[in-house]
TrEMBL record:
Residue ranges of every copy of the Glycoside hydrolase family domain listed in the record: 704-805
UniProt-listed Gene3D superfamilies: Galactose-binding domain-like, Glycosidases, Immunoglobulins
Residue ranges of domain Glycoside hydrolase family 2 catalytic in the record: 277-438
Name under which the protein is recorded: Glycosyl hydrolases family 2, sugar binding domain
Phylogenetic placement of the source organism: Bacteria, Bacillati, Actinomycetota, Actinomycetes, Micrococcales
Pfam families: DUF4982, Glyco_hydro2_C5, Glyco_hydro_2, Glyco_hydro_2_C
Coiled coil region boundaries: none
Keywords: Glycosidase, Hydrolase
GO molecular function: hydrolase activity, hydrolyzing O-glycosyl compounds
Family, per entry: Belongs to the glycosyl hydrolase 2 family.
UniProt GO BP: carbohydrate metabolic process
Amino acid sequence: MIRHPFTDGWTVGPKLGAFEAMGANIEPQPVTLPHDAMRDLPRSADSDQGVGAGYHRGGVFEYVKTFDVPDAWREKTVLIEFEGVYRDAVVYVNGEFAAHQPNGYAAFAVTLDPFLVFGRTNRISVEARAHKDSRWYSGAGIYRPVHLVVAEPTHIALDGTRVTTPDIDEDRAIVEIATTVQNAGRHTSMSRIAWSIVGPDGAEVAATSAPVTVLPGETAIARARLSVPDASLWHPDSPGLYSARVTLDGTDGAAAGDEETVRFGIRRLQLDPQRGLRINGRTVKLRGACVHHDNGPLGAATIGAAEERRVRLLKAAGFNALRSAHNPMSRAMLEACDRHGVLVMDELTDVWTRSKTAFDSSVSFAETWRDDVAALVAKDVNHPSVIMYSIGNEILELATPIGSSWSRRIAEAVRALDDTRFVTNGINGIIANLDKMAEARAELEAADPNTMMADMGEQMGLMNASAMVSESTEESAAVLDVVGFNYAESRYALDAELFPHRVIVGSETFPAKIERMWRLVLEHPHVIGDFTWTGWDYLGEAGIGRVDYTDVEGYQPTGTAGPYPYLLAESGDIDITGHRRTVSYYREIAFGLRTDPYLAVHRPQHHGRPTATTPWSWDDSVASWTWGVEPGAPVVVDVYSDADEVELLIDGEPVGTATVGEIAPLIARFKTVYRPGELVAIARSAGAETGRTRLRTADSAPRLTLSAERTAIAADPDDLAFVEIAIADASGSTFTDADRPATVSVTGPGVLAGFGTGRARTEEPFDGDTVTTYDGRALAIVRPTGAGAITVTVTADGLAPASMTITAG
């Protein structure tokens, strides 16, 4: 089927019941989809959604659109497809109930034919609900794209073409294509279907066709088996993509009935405990990042350019794999992973039949899980980046006999729909045995499982390696191709002995442990990778990775829950604006991808203050040597390096030499004093220099600087311009602690779609035109509304305005 964007002309407002609406005077607001209805709601400390949602409140929202339905559609099949509506979507067409989709992450289609009034304007409305149903910020509303489909009665089914590559040799690959054709008409349909395979260079490499007859009200699967010579194999290092073009024509000379194009990769997956994961015969270790689905300043809105940017920046930071935590990944992000060669573990859900929050999807899981699995597979099946389906995350009932039955049931349902990929599950032995650990929880006085795990420290590893966990999770683990372990690296060596045929992935691990985690991955061939929590910071689970200074008046420990106004988790290698935090460079060195050292300076204004952290925290450090403290103020400088030792210099004068690893793996620490100038770190192994890096103090007046990754974008609401704002000197050195409010204005065919910083604790909204810079930076996101020149202007007190032009066309 041919999908047409159906994203403009919508309005949104709070949904009121028929009686509630009497006398109400609430004006719906115009929006362009995708849209997050929760992002701009007021936040407050007494929000009943609490820290999980970043202190946002929930609600019920109604989206409305009117559209013309011509008489010519009487003989057509008309569908509307939603890629995701959060949550419990109810669709009405001309006031009549048309569909209900409880899952907030599953794509679904609604057949409009029975409800349309032809030759007139029609109305579609979509209700969405979000309230105490997620452990993280979910967003709300029609947050993923929507498509209108108008097709002939005989047409290619939505997601109706599946491409597999079961037979690959050096000189050729066999591509099998199966296309489902539907006949919604009253007469037998006789058509001809044609397939064409186009290579990465745009040239056709194979083609064939066949007749297909479909009886009224039935479907038929048409298949082709094509040989592609000298195939270019898809691999993370060389992600070449092919396209399968499918056309359906009437055999009586009628116009083409339908067409679609599916992009795919030709690649071979292998898995065993001796050589781990192999792609096209080459072992690949997964340098993985867990990612939530929100896009920072955009909220949960899934706009294609934002998804692509996240994938691109995560790969540039050293990751080659993403785990979609804890829900299915968007189509746009999967497409970006295909293009950039990033492997995907796509996850079905966070809960099965036992709830983690008051109104989560456990309420309907037993009735909807098969549909949810089908939607996941239908979305993923042609994407070469997807190598594993995860059937859950830290499932509460997993260690019970009934939970094991659910494990088997779900895993087999996935395999029945797609047996070309591996099945995994994010198992947390402690969470799965919470009932048996009630006494331990009481001793730790934990308010929630995250806090309990944080308080357990090294005890958690011992408990995860216990016989109780081994025995209680054995059946659920045995149904998997790859056993995912959350925070259970203590099982890696143990399971090689207990379960010698078991293949493991670290499906979720603490960020500060990456040096140890990666060593274990490299040492154990049956451990295929590590997925850190997290690769990109996110909204909700507010403050889980924060650093608290405990000497402030009235400080009270709050476990992993950050008090209001914390908004962000503050746990990510990359902050929500796309800026790499210092931990990202540490990880890059741990992965063996960076030889130059990296300078991370602890904020001198906080020198000597006591801190409290969580296992998801990193140091409160910044790569800067521009500070508003007096020269001579004490400061701690960390240098990340895999060398033997590091020498530190200021303006060419030696500060000292430190051995790497004395205070922590891959870190050389210096206690010195702040002095403006040039700070240089030189790494050496066996006396020979292996790399150097430097930071320079800003030496001229601060000014506003604007930069954009692209100054020319498409005149399409699915594209975006990301304008990075910095307070810097003439040579680009940022004034790290000279923050001030900055105001953005946009003129021309564009709007300010989001404006924010990486500051985790803030009351500034993303929909405003003013934010306070954080470490001298902010990000403005501009969405085009048409073609032409878009001017972005930024002002801030005491600084000259700065402008730049983005061309949409």
